[in-house]
Amino acid sequence: MHNEPLAFRMRPLTLDEVVGHQDFIGPTTALYKMIHNGHVPSMLLYGEPGIGKTSIANAIAGSSKLPFFALNATRAGKKDVEDIVQEARISGKVLLFLDEIHRFNKLQQDTLLPHVENGSIVLIGATTENPYHDVNPAIRSRCGEIYQLKRLTIENIIALIQKALADDKRGLGKYHFALTEKQIELIAGAANGDARKALTLLESIYYASDEVDGQTIAADHIIEHLSSRIGVYGDKKGSHFYNLLSALQKSVRGSDTNAALYYLAHLLEIGDLVAVSRRLLVMAYEDIGLANPATGPHVLAAVQAAERLGLPEARIPLANAVIEMCLASKSNSAIVAIDAAIAAIHEGKTGDIPHHLRDAHYGGAKDLGHVGYQYPHHTPIGTFGGWVDQQYLPDELVGTEFYQPVIAGEEKRMAGIYEKLKSFHQHKK
Length: 429
What we know:
- This protein is an alpha/beta fold.
- It has helices at residues 6-9, 22-25, 30-36, 53-64, 78-91, 106-117, 131-134, 137-142, 154-166, 181-191, 195-207, 220-228, 239-253, 257-270, 273-288, 295-309, 315-327, 333-346, 411-424, and strands spanning 43-46, 68-72, 94-99, 121-127, 145-148, 177-178, 210-212, 215-217.
- Strands 2-3-4-1-5 form a five-stranded parallel sheet, with helices on both faces. A three-stranded mixed sheet has the order 6-8-7, with no helix packed on it.
- The chain is elongated.
């Protein structure tokens, strides 16, 4: 058996061997044609681990025939970069694949960037983090395109597994390893779009299989056991994690219960209960808001229960909270209103607090004119409680409305009260 892992051996050697990603590097794309015509542009490849960034860089190198070097920004030092710069001077042009490019420090950049700019080094950077957030603008500006790679489909992964099973030189072809169509589909599904996971799992299954009559046969229970042990991709600080949080909130906001539960499940598998709980609380007040005021306390209770229970039991109260929010009436009027008030302050729309609203709990307040406040509770108005017609906003802002009710759920009743009180009010511009 080979010393290198199967996932390493099966990396494509040319663009025509790339599985998936045909939308940006397939034979009909501009990038494919440029490379085959001898022009390789600097670029950034952005996507999840195992999605094919390194494989594509290798394939580009194999198709371009440029001298190829690979560095990882977390381990490379200034000397490594200087060596490649020197090679570029000798060869005229080299291709550099820089993995984890978002970790590139300023000293490395200062050494490399002038040579990327003059074209002697063609840079292919790879990152799992959003390049607009985490990659230095100086690097981004020198890379003509940023390609966001999509997760491979099950069909792509099946094609990759079949290719590995058939390949006599780099794959498992010469070992007479047989898998049924159903077994291949199970492996492909477990890989969840990750080519590296698929090939690593395939190799593990091979080693756990038995040889029968000259043929290696994998037992179903072995495949099911190993497939179930594949972890969900994601970490607590990466871009994918924040994308999951965003997808959860947008699914709840869109009242899609099943999508929201899917993203909640993914987040809980990653294991950051604190971040998930915090986001759920925000959503209760940002997206459900005044349309269903009881939702906030309900979600808080669910979050507190989850914190006491811990995972895996925490999934139960949190699922309750997510389903309730999905199916609740929704209003964002509160966040829109407070953001409008904050924006007004930033725009300089301020004024003096009316004298009758200022603190008067001290001797001398009357001498300063802090008088005239009318206590609303002394003037009942129907079943509402108490209300008096007096000015609360500064003179410069009288008549300004930050709050615009959403006619939904419980807020419909509140909107009626709001409009009624406005009709009583005489302090308008």
